[in-house]
Write a structure and sequence with these properties.
330 residues, Calcineurin-like_PHP, globular, 31% helix, Metallophosphoesterase, alpha/beta, 8 helices, Purple Acid Phosphatase, chain A, domain 2, 2 domains, STPP_CPPED1
């Protein structure tokens, strides 16, 4: 009888312990529900460099992109921006693969793309290809009426710019963004149509803002900066350099503007002050890439501020690098 009583007592303690384990997650979920929620969350990818090919290594960008999309399912942002260099060479089948992965992994998530320099690269492979075909293909694949456009979403103005020429000016400007006078004029009219906080997306950075390793980021940088300075509050997100957004050089605040780079889902680069095996040196700075690393920016918009975060997709975790920018009344 004593042994039976002991067994019953032990069984009772096991039930109590199990009930505590069941309650703990419930308490945690309640705390999450009661926490402040952003009114808008924006995931910002860039530099996917997807290649629909059997070439060795072509599957790595695809795998990283798919993994990042799986990560987004957990985060549940309101929309996704892919800020240029969606493909390695801008071929139609590259975009088809991107659309296939988006439809499979995040079928209901709105996606807004901009063009990058690599999205013009098919002209290097095919003499029958040119800038016009690159732009037409990009617009057709992603159902865009124009290469540059804007959207209003929950109290935020989003403007999407894209470089418009590559091959005819490549020898002159390298990989820099070139915007037509029509796009620059449209940008000024569209930006200044409202005093609402605005996020501008352009693949290449504006000269004199974030990373300065490239001699020219955007040909019309001075014009665009002069226009942006007329607005009460602009957040300018650029890509192209692949520099990790964790680097202190990749977040700049000045003249009512915030400049932030987005890193790369495929291959972000870390800035180093001293040599590391396998690092490359450019303008006195060492750059090293971890083959497993995959990063992007993430914006949480609240009523009084914007939080700018860094997401590490390879570990499905947040970086400790975080910026909070107060929103100005408008």
């Amino acid at each position: 009888m004593r042994r039976l009583s002991s067994v019953r007592g032990l069984y009772a303690w096991i039930l109590i312990f199990a009930s505590l384990l069941l309650v703990a997650p419930f308490q945690s979920s309640v705390a999450t529900v009661n926490a402040e929620r952003p009114r808008l969350s924006i995931a910002v990818f860039s530099d996917l460099h997807i290649t629909a090919s059997e070439v060795i290594g072509a599957d790595i960008p695809t795998y990283k992109f798919k993994n990042a999309l799986v990560d987004l399912r957990r985060l549940r942002p309101d929309l996704l921006v892919i800020n240029g260099d969606l493909s390695m060479n801008g071929r139609p089948k590259d975009y088809d693969l991107i659309k296939e992965l988006l439809a499979k992994e995040v079928p209901t998530l709105p996606m807004y793309p901009t063009m990058g320099n690599h999205d013009y690269y098919h002209a290097w492979e095919s003499p029958e290809w040119n800038d016009d075909r690159s732009k037409e293909t990009f617009q057709s694949k992603f159902a865009l009426d124009k290469l540059y456009y804007d959207r209003y979403v929950r109290g935020l103005h989003l403007i999407f710019l894209s470089p418009e020429q590559y091959m005819p000016r490549q020898k002159e400007i390298g990989e820099a963004a070139w915007l037509s006078p029509e796009q620059v004029a449209w940008f000024e009219k569209t930006l200044l149509a409202t005093t609402m906080p605005t996020v501008v997306f352009l693949h290449q950075p504006l000269d004199g803002t974030v990373y300065q390793g490239f001699p020219i980021g955007t040909v019309q940088a001075k014009e665009l900066l002069a226009i942006a300075q007329k607005h009460p509050q602009v957040f300018w997100l650029s890509s192209h350099t692949h520099i990790s957004p964790e680097s202190p050089t990749e977040m700049v605040e000045r003249d009512n503007m915030v400049f932030a780079s987005t890193g790369s889902v495929w291959r972000p680069w870390d800035r180093l002050t001293s040599y590391f095996p396998g690092a490359r040196k450019r303008n006195g700075i060492y750059y090293h890439t971890d083959p497993l690393k995959s990063q992007s920016r993430y914006l949480n918009v609240y009523d009084d501020r914007v939080e700018i975060l860094v997401r590490n997709h390879h570990t499905h975790s947040w970086s400790t690098v975080k910026h909070s920018v107060p929103l100005k009344p408008h």
